[in-house]
Amino acid sequence: MAIDQIHDLQQVYRKLLNSMSRPGTISLIEQETERVDVDFGCANALMLSAMVLLDAEVTFHVLSENRRDLIEKISEYTSARFAPLQEADFIIVLQKDEESEILAAMAQCKIGSLIDPQQSATWIIETTVLSNSGALLLTGPGIETEAQLSTGQSIRFWQARDSRIKEHPMGLDMIFADGSSQIACLPRTVSAIPMEVE
């Protein structure tokens, strides 16, 4: 892998932090993804996000369990351990995953507790294309008044997310990565209201 494990991943980390602290902000990590010379079988932006966030101290679950190749590569590059959905610290969702599986997983993943809200799952989701036009109206911390974001997920997806973040501070955080080397983040504290059918 031609990517610089220190400099390039540090840049990705900074851009992830920027997007997480400013929900709806789409960060471009094209310079970093262009250096990836391994075919991971998913968007390079998704894999670099995983490489930045996962390590030997955390667990992950790939929703497409038949993707043994991706599971092995994530473990190899991050030292994180694969775990059952209900125990995973990070949940990887691929673009081709069925919506019914995604909704079922969202209902089962951990969302922390009132005492330990940080014991929740962070979702890293591969999506078609991210844009700041249309679909979702975002409000909450890190957004001056409101922001817009389009991720390609359905209204049912956002309703399922909404049902899992109702009891603040419990909930789940989401990172979206597309094939155009863009990333966007949606922390649990942000309200995402569908403006139209995606």
UniProtKB/TrEMBL annotation:
Pfam family, one: PhnH
Gene3D superfamilies: Bacterial phosphonate metabolism protein PhnH (3.40.50.11310)
Signal peptide start and end residues: none
Gene Ontology MF: a single term: lyase activity
Lyase found in the keyword field: yes
SUPFAM superfamilies registered for this protein in UniProt: PhnH-like
Alphabetically ordered keywords of this record: Lyase
GO BP term, pick one: organic phosphonate metabolic process
UniProt cross-references to NCBIfam families, sorted A to Z: PhnH_redo
Protein name listed in UniProt: Phosphonate C-P lyase system protein PhnH
Species this chain originates from: Planococcus antarcticus DSM 14505
